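Task: sequence design from structure.
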């Protein structure tokens, strides 16, 4: 799926969930602190941003869905322990040591 298709699908799901909870757009928009037009655009999969999505998810009581998007990472990895590996704390990018130096 393309990004616009994904946004449209997300909007359809948000609208269907809102309707399932028997809430109208004005109620959800008010709870989320956004305008009805902004909610309508989100439900159409257009012109939304992460802030709007999170506000609507909070208003609909679906923030626990974030764990599905990004599952919790176990703090202990038994397989890594057997191999003697440690859990990475940060990914470092190798620096180009030749940058700016001419020979």
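Answer:
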């Amino acid at each position: 799926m393309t990004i616009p298709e994904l946004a449209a699908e997300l909007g359809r799901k948000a609208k269907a969930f809102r309707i399932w909870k028997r809430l109208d757009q004005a109620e959800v928009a008010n709870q989320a602190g956004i305008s009805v037009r902004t909610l309508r655009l989100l439900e159409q999969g257009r012109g939304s941003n992460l802030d709007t999505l999170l506000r609507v998810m909070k208003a609909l009581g679906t923030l626990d869905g974030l764990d599905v998007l990004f599952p919790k990472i176990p703090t202990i990895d038994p397989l890594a322990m057997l191999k003697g590996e440690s859990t990475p704390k940060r990914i470092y990018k190798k620096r180009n040591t030749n940058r700016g130096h001419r020979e």
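The CA atoms of residues 12 and 43 lie 6 Å apart.
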